[in-house]
Amino acid sequence: MHHDSPRLSRNNFDLLRxxxxxxxxxxxxxxxxxxxxxxxxxxxxxxxxxxxxxFVVSGFLIFMSCERSTSLxxxxxxRVRRLYPAYFTVVMLxxxxxxxxxxxxxxxxxxxAWLKYVGSNLIFLNFLQPTLPGVFDGNTAxxxxxxxxxxxxxxxxxxxxxxxxxxxxxxxxxxxxxxxYCASVAYAHLMSMAAEQTGSGLYVQLARQLPGxxxxxxxxAFLYCxxxxxxxxxxxxxxxxxxxxLAGRIYPLPLLEPFALxxxxxxxxxFLYVGNFGKYGDFSYGVYIIxxxxxxxxxxxxxxxxxxxxxxxxxxxxxxxxxxxxxxxxEKRFLLRxxxxxxxxx
Length: 346
What we know:
Helix content is 69%, strand content 0%. It is mainly alpha-helical. The longest helix is centred in the N-terminal third of the chain and has 26 residues, at 72-97. GO terms for molecular function: acyltransferase activity, transferring groups other than amino-acyl groups.
């Protein structure tokens, strides 16, 4: 599968990302609303697995984007255009409009805490100030948009990809990505062991950060680099991956499971093509960064407290409408003409 392979331009990654975003929405609705009826019973559909799958897709596509870019400026321009306009819009809309549901007076709302929220969130440091004054204090979790924690990891990965590409060109991708993959798995395992032994939540949080998640990016990048082999031997790759994931439900295989997940994700991204979903736009990012404030607002308003499925339907309707509007009013306007989302509609 070379650079001009049809699979790299005719694929299911847009649809796959949307399905993963919807998976995250379902999980967050169950957690934040308290409706256990909406909680997925299948382990493979957990929010954690969906986020890891997002990282795999990013590893594959962003590595490809960097390798194909004519310059570092071109690469970073594409990343900023794709990520930041929608992110900025959602952060600022929440910061300004949620004064309407704050328990604080207007003067107390627009305070130092508000400025800290805006400043830290606009530079992807959501953890420094995840709440707004008097907003969602009575909810299960007071964070305005807890889903944003993954975006700082994405941004750090974007910053490191040019270095990864350079190292892979100099030393070959196999040793570089294999070392990074193993180091990431080892880090996550050590943090998990420390969390078990100490009972401290700090180590759980540290395991979730970039070093512990890098194995998923690296696995996605590795499958991009060995795409010829992957296409030729895809049956063997999938059989091994499914066996590892099934065995991992009985006996954990932390060294192999991230790569096995990556194989399954990339398989569905590249094979079984279902059509040009990109011609409609890419709504997955909007769904991901909008859905938590929508859920929080509905929980805060005490709407549909006895109707879990109606609650979910309203969340889906508002989030979907918001994501479509965000795409057409903000995201699409900042993309380059060469973007496949623009060319797909022509």
